[in-house]
Amino acid sequence: MNLETCLKKMQLVGVLAFATVDGQGAPQIRNISAIHYEADALYFFTARGKDFCRELQADGRVQILAYTKYKEMIRLSGKAYAVDAGAQIKWRDIIFEEQPYLANVYPGDTRDIGIIFCIDEGEVEYFNLGVKPIFRETYRLGKLTETAKTGNHKGYHITDACIGCGTCVQHCPQSCISCVEDAETGNTHFSIRQEHCLHCGACYEHCPVGAVKRYESE
Predict the structure, then answer these.
(1) Is 4Fe-4S one of the keywords UniProt gives this record (predicted)?
(2) Domain 3-148, what fold?
(3) What is the reported pTM?
């Protein structure tokens, strides 16, 4: 799996859920299909009068979710911005050509009410529940800086406080915790294989010495 494949899968799903936050801090979700995909960016169309447009202009932060028939979840977290005025018509016409139904929604010159937004920096999270063990991975879209990353270090990890008792292994539903031996001391501790972790928290709840920590809490 890689970023290119994730974007192709999102394109095949077609209709994606876009989540924003309104002026009162309430979550808002819409299904959007007026989307064009580039190798390193995503462009989409909406009307200037819509609440969705105003929310994007006021804040820009958006999450986009696709779910495939193979039990794959793909989530793009990024910041949308309106493309330059000189490029609006170009990207709008591309989207209308790829999505013929839009001509029925906005016939003729009424399409001028639209505005094109772009997301070219963000994180794409891939999560496959259709395999065992499950598989997850995070990919970077564009030149996202470390401080701007939204999904970095999610889930749990086992610290040096581990006493090697193996309680976490017994409670892990995906068997993604492995025993690791220190080459110098011969002591054993456990480590989570992050690409197979559900983030369910079972290891965290059952560790007798509190050696399992949430990444977000540090």
Answers:
(1) yes
(2) Pnp Oxidase; Chain A (2.30.110)
(3) 0.86
The β-bridge partners of 178 are 191
Alpha-carbon distances, residue 139 vs 74, 77, 171 (angstroms): 11, 11, 29
Extract the tokens encoding 197: 């972790």
> What dihedral angle (degrees, nearest 10) is formed by the CA atoms of 129, 132, 138, 139?
-100
* Long-range contact set of residues 2-9: C-beta below 8 Å, sequence gap at least 24: 2/139, 3/124, 3/139, 3/140, 3/141, 4/39, 6/74, 6/124, 6/126, 6/139, 7/37, 7/39, 7/42, 7/124, 8/37, 9/66, 9/68, 9/72, 9/74
Residue 143 has what pLDDT? 76
State how far the Cα of 146 lies from the Cα of 56, in Å rounded to an integer.
23
**Mean pLDDT over residues 83-101, rounded?**
97
- For residue 13, the model assigns a pLDDT of 97
Domain boundaries of the chain, sorted by first residue: 3-148, 156-217
Alpha carbon distance 20, 91 (integer Å): 22
Tally Cβ neighbours within 10 Å of residue 115: 19
Task: Name the DSSP letter for residue 194.
Answer: G
pLDDT for 120-162, tens place per residue?
Answer: 999 999 999 999 999 999 999 997 544 444 445 789 999 999 9
